[in-house]
Design brief:
This protein is α+β, with helices and mostly antiparallel strands and 244 residues long. The protein has helices spanning 2-20, 36-61; strands spanning 99-101, 107-109, 112-113, 151-156, 169-173, 182-187, 193-196, 207-211, 216-218, 241-242.
């Protein structure tokens, strides 16, 4: 009987020993050690988490580049000053102090210069020196086609009236002896004749002055007509218009 128990116990011990050689230790912790699956998962999860945190930190720090286009509307107010040139033609009559130069060498200064159809310095188209111009140059007269004169006469170099005085200047003042206001000036031509279609206003009377190269002669009384040669015929009391 004792032998049978001993044999049975030995068989049990042998069976337990054989199982211990083929089954893992049931008392070892499952996660303790360096299991492949556990190590890989732990490393992968840790790396992914750190990477995402670093990226979020970079975004929070504000590092980056922003590109865009801004369009606005504004108003500018200012003043521009420039210089320009105006070119044109002016037609009319000038009153005041000025200088008019005609053909020749005589220059007339002051008053209204009677131009247009008038005698000019150096001109030589006139005729009939000493005669009353208004006999022909009147409305409807034989010379009216050439002009109806408002003023007409002949200047000489002496009161006797033997030689004409060329290119003198006739002036008309509102007072005697060159006083008052100088109203008109008129250039005589190279033959001593002076004439103009005007217009000339004789209202209140005008006082003529004849300006020569060296002398100016004044008329002491006023005139209300421009027909100078109708009175200045060279007689004793009606000396010629003259200067020198």
């Amino acid at each position: 009987m004792k032998l049978k128990l001993t044999t049975t116990f030995s068989a049990i011990v042998l069976l337990v020993f054989m199982q211990s050689c083929t089954v893992p230790n049931p008392y070892e912790p499952i996660n303790n050690g360096t299991a492949t699956n556990g190590t890989t998962n732990s490393t992968t999860n840790s790396g992914t988490t750190n990477s995402n945190v670093e990226k979020e930190n970079e975004d929070d720090n504000g590092t980056g580049t922003t590109t865009g286009t801004t369009t606005g509307t504004g108003t500018t107010t200012g003043t521009t000053t420039g210089t320009g040139t105006t070119t044109g033609t002016t037609t009319g009559t000038t009153t005041g102090t000025g200088t008019t130069t005609g053909t020749g060498t005589t220059t007339t200064t002051g008053g209204i210069v009677l131009g247009g159809n008038s005698s000019t310095t150096g001109g030589n188209i006139s005729h009939n020196m000493g005669q009353n111009c208004m006999n022909c140059h009147n409305p409807g007269g034989a010379g009216s086609g050439k002009g109806v004169w408002q003023v007409g006469g002949t200047a000489y170099n002496s009161s006797a009236g033997t030689t004409t005085a060329p290119n003198v200047v006739i002036k008309f003042y509102t007072g005697p002896n060159g006083t008052g206001t100088l109203k008109y000036t008129l250039n005589a031509d190279s033959r001593g004749n002076f004439y103009s279609v005007g217009p000339v206003d004789f209202t209140g009377g005008l006082y003529p002055a004849v300006v020569g190269a060296t002398t100016t002669k004044y008329m002491g009384s006023s005139i209300t007509t421009g027909a100078c040669n109708s009175c200045h015929t060279g007689g004793t009391s009606t000396a010629r218009v003259w200067t020198n």
